[in-house]
Amino acid sequence: MIYEIDAVHRHNNVYNATIFPHNVGLGVTRDPNLVKRIGEANALEVRATRIPYVFAPCIAVCRNLRWGRCYESYSEDHKIVQAMTEIISGLQGDMPPTTQNEAPYVSTANLL
Fold it and tell me: What reaction gets catalysed by this protein (predicted)?
């Protein structure tokens, strides 16, 4: 059985989990380092619940507001969306030296 979570708005189905702004709000910051750190935090919380995969991030470029999920896009500017793909590095990132588990946080590059 494969068990995943739709963590586009982070791990919001868990009590006391950290809720970050939707991607459209993060795109306004134009800060790839911030997005990467959010990915790292999300990965830690997801792994704490023993879920190995997430359906995130949404790396779509929304150019038509009639698409009902434009808030999942970082921007209508493809350069901003490209910069915000740093969240993938955060989700897959290196394990901190204090972590006992040697597995990647959420997934590996081979799964993408």
Answer: Hydrolysis of terminal, non-reducing beta-D-glucosyl residues with release of beta-D-glucose
Any domain includes 108: no
User: Is residue 104 in some structural domain?
Assistant: no
Residue 1 makes CB contacts below 8 A (sequence gap 6+) with none
Average pLDDT of adjacent 10-residue blocks, the chain of 112 residues: 74 83 93 94 86 83 85 92 93 68 51 43
| Distance from C-alpha of 59 to C-alpha of 68, rounded to nearest angstrom | 15
Provide the residue range defining the domain that includes 44: 4-96
The tokens 């793909």 sit on which residue? 85
What are residue 49's phi and psi, to 5 degrees? Answer: -95, 10
Helix (H) or strand (E) holding 9: none
10 token code pair: 């982070």
